[in-house]
Predict the 3D structure of the following.
Amino acid sequence: MAHKKGGGSSTNGRDSQGQRLGVKRFGGQVVTGGSILIRQRGTRYKAGKNVGRAKDDSLFALINGVVRFEDKGQLGKYISVLFFLNDAATPEKKPAATAAN
C-alpha cells in the first residue's frame, strides 16, 4: 500500500508573487518629493543628496528635482535628487491690459 500521495499539479501548485524590485525612476527624470526611486534588498545603491532610505532599503526622493546616478568607484553607487528650476513650469506674467481706444 502506498504511503505517499501522487505529486499532481494541485500538490505542486504553490508559488510566491514577484517582489517588483528594481529601478523605478531613471537618471534625468523629474520626480516629486516622496517618489520611490528604487526598490532593493540590501544597499546595492546608497542614498545620496536629497534621497531617503526606507526600512526595506528602498530609496525615495525628499524634494522635487531631477534624478542623478553617481558611481563613486570603491565608495559605491549613489542616487541623488538635484534641485530643478523649470522656467517653463513657472507661470508667466501677462502684461497689463491696455486701453484699445
In short: Strands lie at 22-23, 30-31, 36-39, 45-47, 51-53, 59-61, 65-71, 77-83. The two ends are 108 Å apart (CA to CA). The chain has a mean pLDDT of 86. The chain is about 0% helix and 30% strand.
